[in-house]
Amino acid sequence: NVGPHFETWNAGILGPVTLSGLNDGKRDISHQQWTYQV
User: Domain spans of the chain?
Assistant: First the structure.
C-alpha cells in the first residue's frame, strides 16, 4: 500500500469503454456490468 487510505481508491476500469473498428463505428459498452480479478 502506498499512503493512507490506499485501499479506498477506485480500482479497475474507471473511464469510458468503447469498441472501435466495427462496421457500426464506435460502440459504447461503459454501462455494461464488468467483473475482473486481480
Answer: 1-38
